[in-house]
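Notes continue from the previous slide.

Worked example: a multi-chain complex. Inputs as given:
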Amino acid sequence: MKLDKDSIWTALNKESGGIKVKISKVAKAGTLESNDILVMVMPNDNDTVELELESIVMQQFGDVIRKVVLEKVKEMGIESITIKAQDKGALDYTISARVETAIKRALA
Amino acid sequence: MKNILGRELPDYIEGYGKIEPFMGAFNNTGIKERKSVKVSSVTPGEEKVLASIEEALDKVQIKDGMTISFHHHLRNGDFVLNMVLEAIAKKGIKDITVAASSIFPVHGPMVEHMRNGVVTGVVANYMSGPVAEAISRGELKKPAIMQTHGGRPRAIESGDLHIDVAFVAAPTADTYGNINGVGGKSACGALGYAVSDAEFADKTVAITDNLVPYPACPIEISQIYVDYVVQVESIGDPKGIVSGTTKITKDPVGLKIAKMATEVIKASGLVKDGMSFQTGAGGTSLAVAAELKEVMKKEGVVGSFAAGGVTGYIVDMFEEGLFQNIFDVQCFDLQAVESYKKNLRHQPMSASMYGNPHNKGAVVNHLDIMILGATEIDTDFNVNVTTGSSGVIMGGSGGHSDTAAGAKLAIIVTNLMKARLPIIKDRVTTVTTPGESVDVIVTERGIAVNPRRTDLLEKLSNTNLPVMTIEELKNMAEKITGKPNTIHTSDDIVAVVEYRDGTVIDVVKKIK
Amino acid sequence: MPGNNPGMLQNAGILGADSIILDLEDAVSLTEKDSARVLVREAIKNVDYSNVEVIVRINPLDTEFGAEDINVIARVKPDTILVPKADEAQIKQVDEMLNKIEAEEGIEAGAIKLIALIETAYGLETIYDVIRVSKRVVGVLLGGEDLTSDLGVKRTKEGEEIFYARNRVVAACKAMKIDAIDTPFTDTNDYEGLAKDAAKAKSLGMTGKSAINPRQIDTIHSVYAPTEAEIKHALRVLDAMEEAKREGKGVFSLDGKMVDAPIINRATTTVELAKILGLIR
């Protein structure tokens, strides 16, 4: 097995059927520039994944953006988190990347 | 019923009347009539100068239900429309239709008048800001009528749009009503959009902040059309008057689009002595003008005329000898105003001369190359410049449909996607310009040619340009952004979109 | 371009450059290194850069970021990794890390290439060893700004102070038959200066030039573009070669002069370059 952070992460996740990972602090990633998304993550006590989303393309892509964010959260094994996101037209891979970075920062 | 573009239209709209559906860009032509105008003759000894707008309203006998008109040469620096409406509201007048050639954010106070029933109808070629947003929300009693820069004078001259009182903001006016736009602190240059109003309104009132002794010089609108003259402190804010220009884009994507568009123009074979050219004032459109300038210089081409909305960039091309004439319907910046004043061949054109499809031949009929923008384009090449992606009115044809119809080569320059939204859709939210008038779409990732233009397709196949079908362009964009959900609007009609010939090409529905 | 800017990453491939450098090093602030790394990883996986070479500039291995950069980025198979402050030891280390990662990820061995960014005096002097230590090294990029800083001299438009460096880089690259890419011209508003600078570099043997703004691409391309006459001649050489092949002749001449291998090579390169620049179809 590779001994880098990501691989250990994925492996543990798989083997334990998803470790309940809790973030311990507030963190953010991304910017409010065009084509980007500002993602802020906070711990919550509800054992729920809460997402507050604002987007300049809410009507056209709001559902897709939600899906991408929630999928990333699930992939990283997070079950309790509050996310506030302000989207300025970011593509899916950018959204995914920013969510990943924010969560990693909140775990560090 | 459906018009030939497949847009769903009612037969009749309350507050508008019977709908004549759009049947094709040149379907409605032939013998047309110019309406007759009732003129109050003025005899020697009569004075035209009045003390105030209020006195002018009394003299013209302003009444409920009248249609008043304004031009938009003072753009976002205009004070006149707001001043007149305020005076009208104070008099307790209601049910006014405002026919302003364009409405800008500075006209925000009009929203209150709409809510109070003072203004119940609007006719315009372009709208942005609070008024446009309020209309999109359904706050205007009657549906707004959106026309084009050429269709408005058509409507006025034929009598389709009857103007009771035309209020002409005049940077310079003399005591007998001669008007020009080149003198005074609020100078704006050409007054192309005021001409038909002044000539065909029942009453015409000049409102000026630069009253000069008789006679003014030059004379753009003649005393024979003007009933009264009112002097005010200021007709507009000079900073806002020249707010219509943008600079050439610095965005590398826009610059790439401009280069590609120039390659298309070159391949078309239209770059030769005697050519004519017009471009919009957007950043990318101006970049095309800059590129074309280099091409013309390199090949030693001298064009016959450049037309428009004129910016300093066009004036530079003219003064460097690349065009022999400029036809100017409005000046966008001070450099254009200066040139208009001093260069003999920088000539005025009224909005009617510019684009009226029912007169004896408008300038757009002679246009070779036209550069245009778009908010949305569909796979039939129909273009939307009226509503934004959320369905809110944030524009209007302006001269879009007129120039596209007349030009030999109408090119739309646009990013393929704007902040995750693909520009190309299956169906545009609103049709402003019909696909038959649109020849080429140039985006940074590909070029689509209207299938009707087999000649262009052949010429472009000999270049290295990435030509593809419009469906391929659309799919390319959707592959990057994902497929957007369609916006849902309500069923209420808030605006009727008229084509330049007065037929109805589409309607705008109230946003949810 | 800066690796932390999604707007730029999206459009990088269509601005006319032959190769793009997604930067994790100097164009990204210290607090955003993690963010840029993930974003670039995702961009490489998802954005279609078509025929453009995708290069990622990692942080130096002696920083806390370098190793993790390679670990994350190599796994998504960029075309090339640009190694800053390159010296023999670093290149060797990167090469070994890539060997391991390629094996783990099932990537063809040696697929990920390297460009050595020569921007220190030490790197410049040992350049031959820097290139030779790994088969992955396909080019050298001269980093004039940092190099002149290391040399303790002023960086100028005329470029006298990097004259030796340019020559050294060219000689070493030609010896090892790899690309020699010139340092950027930093005044993005001076196109005439850029053209002069690129022409000078070309005359010294540099096979390419880096741009720090898309505005510079056209000027650089036109400096390197073969003239119409050169293209015509090259096409004639290749045609004559084809004809000679058909007639079974091993040796042939054109315009009374014998055409040997160097001439054929030059002609082939010219035609290829002309095609890339869209000068012929």
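Summary box: The mean pLDDT of chain C is 93. The radius of gyration of chain C is 20 Å.
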